[in-house]
């Protein structure tokens, strides 16, 4: 996008992080952390209030019914807080899983003692609206459905709109892990009905790690009183304290909040969710085209590729090893990410953070140079990987 402000590349000799968060942040975001704030002080309370308002507004159409509850910890703390606070003790959840984060949501429910069932599609097949409708029709005990917007373990963009429609038609409540999508992919509650979503500071808003946040219908938060299994991860209690005092209940991640506010302002200046999503989509398109031109294959067909992160099969060439490839990429200024598939060897390249199409072209050049250094002449994947991928075509 030529009308986007230029990204702010790392100035300290750091590599680019082609990872799904923590990711490459701007110098201004890092610089915002160079002072201390008192957690009780009015200045910090105003920062918390501005952050909550900006996040709710970012939801778009229908945001008026929502409130924002920040939560200390990594993103998974907020997922666990959402599940434990909104699924009542006598409720039952249906988890739509197609990767590590769906499985983690199910694991959290098991830990906190909530009844649940999973619709598990394996490594990367998308849960579809009709099968969700069928599961809900067959099990009237299910009160809540848990969906992952972008399943970061494969990079698949799950069809949230048709899932939300099926859940609403069945009169159940949808909870969304939008961790790696919020801020880059719109999810306006007026069009896609859900009760709550979670995301965190260090993904598409491009802040530093330290906290997550729940964006939930105010009425759902009010109704959640007394549900939580945990003192610290009680969304209602955190919200009630924040509404009453403007403060976080326990020590807030002050510096991470300051950095995040800077990131939120940059997000708005870039043009909000649409512009952020467009930059990431262009990053993906340039990266995927460059990698395919070298001979790599993506796990997913184009229709399921998210603008967040893309999974590539490892080359079958015996000269290739992931560890040597990783080191070669790092030496050339890029931190990459291992794959998470059970069937085929793979690796992932993220395209979120302070990176643009130019950085993607540099990354592809670094891949080419690394392959040459390793003596890999053909990046094509093994036949078994392509056979596995063909199953996606059948099932989707
Ligand atoms: C990053 C991420 C999380 C949270 O991971 P943490 O390591 O706890 O921050 C949860 N779900 C998805 C889909 C994610 O991408």
UniProtKB/TrEMBL annotation:
Cofactors named for this entry = pyridoxal 5'-phosphate
MF-aspect GO terms: 2-aminoethylphosphonate-pyruvate transaminase activity
What single Pfam family name could you report for this chain, choosing any that match?
Aminotran_5
Q: What role is this protein assigned?
A: Involved in phosphonate degradation.
Q: How does it assemble?
A: Homodimer.
Q: Of which family is this protein a member?
A: Belongs to the class-V pyridoxal-phosphate-dependent aminotransferase family. PhnW subfamily.
What is the designated name of this protein? 2-aminoethylphosphonate--pyruvate transaminase
Q: What gene makes this protein?
A: phnW
């Amino acid at each position: 996008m030529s009308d986007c402000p230029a990204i702010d590349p790392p100035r300290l000799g750091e590599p680019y992080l082609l990872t799904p968060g923590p990711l490459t942040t701007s110098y201004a975001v890092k610089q915002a952390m160079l002072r201390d704030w008192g957690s009780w002080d009015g200045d910090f309370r105003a920062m918390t209030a501005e952050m909550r308002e900006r996040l709710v507004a970012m939801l778009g159409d229908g945001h008026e019914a929502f409130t924002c509850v920040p939560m200390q910890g990594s993103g998974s703390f907020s997922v666990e807080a959402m599940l434990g606070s909104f699924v009542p003790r006598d409720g039952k959840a249906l988890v739509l899983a197609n990767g590590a984060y769906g499985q983690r949501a199910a694991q959290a429910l098991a830990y906190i003692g909530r009844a649940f069932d999973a619709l598990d599609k394996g490594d990367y097949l998308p849960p579809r609206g009709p099968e969700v409708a069928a599961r809900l029709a067959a099990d009237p005990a299910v009160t809540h459905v848990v969906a992952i917007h972008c399943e970061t373990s494969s990079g698949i963009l799950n069809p949230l709109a048709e899932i939300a429609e099926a859940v609403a038609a069945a009169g159940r409540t949808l909870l969304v892990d939008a961790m790696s999508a919020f801020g880059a992919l719109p999810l306006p509650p007026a069009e896609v009905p859900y009760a709550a979503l979670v995301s965190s500071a260090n993904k598409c808003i491009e802040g530093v790690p330290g906290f997550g946040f729940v964006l939930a219908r105010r009425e759902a938060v009010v109704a959640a009183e007394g549900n939580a299994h945990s003192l610290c991860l009680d969304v209602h209690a955190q919200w009630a304290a924040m509404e009453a005092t403007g403060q976080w209940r326990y020590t807030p991640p002050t510096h991470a909040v300051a950095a995040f506010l800077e990131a939120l302002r940059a997000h708005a200046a870039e043009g909000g969710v649409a512009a952020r999503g467009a930059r990431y989509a262009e990053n993906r398109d340039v990266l995927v085209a460059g990698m395919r031109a070298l001979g790599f294959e993506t796990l997913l067909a184009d229709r399921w590729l998210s603008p967040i992160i893309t999974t590539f099969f490892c080359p079958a060439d015996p000269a290739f090893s992931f560890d040597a490839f990783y080191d070669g990429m790092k030496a050339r200024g890029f931190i990459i990410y291992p794959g998470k598939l059970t069937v085929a060897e793979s690796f992932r390249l993220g395209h979120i953070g302070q990176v643009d199409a130019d950085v993607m072209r540099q990354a592809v050049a670094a891949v080419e140079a690394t392959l040459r250094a390793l003596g890999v002449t053909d990046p094509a994947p093994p036949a078994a990987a392509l056979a596995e991928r063909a199953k996606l075509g059948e099932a989707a």
